[in-house]
């Protein structure tokens, strides 16, 4: 079985599309728009075939979220080497992103970096 895609509602669809293109080389499809509901989406495809659907619509609700809550909590990208994780750390730090932890080796053996994207979703980068 293969996970087909994940989906995430976002406030600023274009900002988030640009973020994933800039930092993760995502390739977007053409924007879908449903004029009846106001839903707009992009499917972002990553190098090895994983896909993320980012969606926005005018009737979304903002709910206070914490880093320690039930439900999906982060998305992780495998960069392949510690050096690539370290390089991304320097790039994200220079661009002003909030770093949550790392780069570090975790208790379960991952070399990882955790940070928040432009809309405060947690992303992990692993070697």
Report on the architecture of this protein:
By secondary structure, the protein is an alpha+beta fold. It folds into 2 domains: 6-56, 2,3-Dihydroxybiphenyl 1,2-Dioxygenase, domain 1 (Roll), CATH 3.10.180.10; 74-126, 2,3-Dihydroxybiphenyl 1,2-Dioxygenase, domain 1 (Roll). 20% of the residues lie in helices and 34% in strands. The chain has helices at 13-24, 82-94; strands at residues 6-9, 27-28, 32-33, 40-45, 51-56, 74-78, 99-105, 111-116, 122-126. Strands 1, 2, 3, 4 and 5 form a 5-stranded mixed beta sheet that branches. A 4-stranded mixed beta sheet has the order 6-9-8-7, covered by helices on one side. Strand 8 (111-116) and strand 9 (122-126) form a beta hairpin. The model has no long low-confidence stretch (mean pLDDT 93).
Q: How would you briefly describe this protein structure?
A:
This protein is of the alpha+beta class. The protein has helices at 13-24, 82-94; strands spanning 6-9, 27-28, 32-33, 40-45, 51-56, 74-78, 99-105, 111-116, 122-126. The chain has 2 domains: 6-56, 2,3-Dihydroxybiphenyl 1,2-Dioxygenase, domain 1 (Roll), CATH 3.10.180.10; 74-126, 2,3-Dihydroxybiphenyl 1,2-Dioxygenase, domain 1 (Roll).
């Amino acid at each position: 079985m293969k996970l087909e895609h994940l989906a995430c509602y976002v406030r600023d669809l274009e900002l988030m599309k640009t973020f994933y293109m800039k930092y993760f080389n995502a390739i977007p499809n053409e924007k879908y728009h449903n004029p009846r509901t106001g839903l707009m989406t992009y499917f972002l495809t990553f190098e090895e075939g994983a896909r993320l659907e980012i969606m926005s619509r005018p009737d979304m609700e903002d709910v206070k979220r914490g880093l320690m809550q039930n439900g999906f909590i982060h998305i992780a990208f495998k960069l392949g080497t510690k050096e690539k994780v370290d390089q991304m750390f320097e790039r994200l730090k220079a661009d002003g992103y909030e770093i949550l932890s790392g780069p570090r080796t975790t208790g379960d053996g991952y070399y990882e970096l955790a940070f928040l994207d432009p809309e405060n979703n947690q992303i992990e980068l692993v070697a």
